[in-house]
Structures are given as structure tokens and as C-alpha cells.
Design a protein that fits this description.
This protein is mainly α. It folds into two domains: 3-86, no CATH class; 97-129. Helices cover 67% and strands 3% of the residues. It contains seven helices and two strands, in the order αβαααβααα. The chain has helices at 3-6, 24-32, 36-49, 52-63, 78-86, 88-113, 116-128; strands at residues 14-15, 66-67. A two-stranded parallel ribbon has the order 1-2.
Length: 129
């Protein structure tokens, strides 16, 4: 399986689960990894300062499809994708650190399983039964 096959295509949808007036702000926040409350506040400010923004919002409500998590369950963690979109370098650094930790644990496990101590512990376990 290639990495492209495992990562779903990133598309913009209105978020029906977090929608207040159509889900456009929730969709924008999900797509770019923004905070939903901040996105909504900026949208309200834009509505009052630039009236054409309201027409754009209505156009997005009519033209962009709405998706619910119930309709399309994600196989990947949405929080991880949000973190990757907001700060990819920090997220990849965290993932790299987790893999290094797992690699050290696996090396200790391999060392124990291939040692004579493991064989001795197995023999003691058999004697207990």
C-alpha cells in the first residue's frame, strides 16, 4: 500500500455536524486547521465590514456539498490532520520522537527475547504450571 493510497484526498466540505448557519465556517476551520470559534468571529466581523462577504457565504452554502461524520466515518484521527495543517513541522517532530521511543522499546524487547534470561524465565513459568 502506498502512502498516497492511505491518505484521503483533502477536499473542502461544509461540516454538517458543527454547523450553525450552514457549516461553512466549520468547513473552513476543518480544512485549514483553524480554531472554529476564531473562524466564526472573523466571519461575523467580515460580514459587517465587507457586505460582499455575506454573498460569498451564501454562495458557499449553496454550492459546496455538506458532509457529516455519520455519513463518511474517517479512518484517520481528525485531530492529527488538524495539527498537521496548523503546524506540520512540530507535528512531524512529535511523530519522529514517538517513533524513536517505540524503536528503543522494541530494541529492548528484542534484546530480552534473544537473551538466555528469557529462556530461563520461560522454563520457570513451565515449572509453575
Amino acid at each position: 500500500m502506498t502512502s498516497q493510497a492511505s491518505v484521503p484526498e483533502r477536499r473542502f466540505f461544509r461540516n454538517a455536524d458543527k454547523a450553525m448557519l450552514g457549516g461553512v465556517c466549520a468547513g473552513i476551520a476543518d480544512y485549514f486547521g483553524f480554531n472554529l470559534c476564531v473562524t466564526r468571529v472573523l466571519a461575523v466581523i467580515a460580514f459587517f465590514t465587507m457586505p460582499l462577504t455575506l454573498l460569498g457565504y451564501l454562495a458557499l452554502v449553496l454550492l459546496v456539498p455538506s458532509v457529516s461524520a455519520k455519513d463518511h466515518p474517517r479512518r484517520v484521527d481528525p485531530e492529527f490532520h488538524r495539527a498537521v495543517r496548523s503546524s506540520p513541522a512540530q507535528t512531524m517532530s512529535d511523530v519522529r520522537g514517538r517513533f524513536k521511543s517505540l524503536d528503543r522499546r522494541l530494541a529492548r524487547l528484542e534484546k530480552y527475547v534473544t537473551s538466555s534470561r528469557y529462556q530461563l524465565d520461560r522454563e520457570f513459568d513451565r515449572l509453575k504450571d
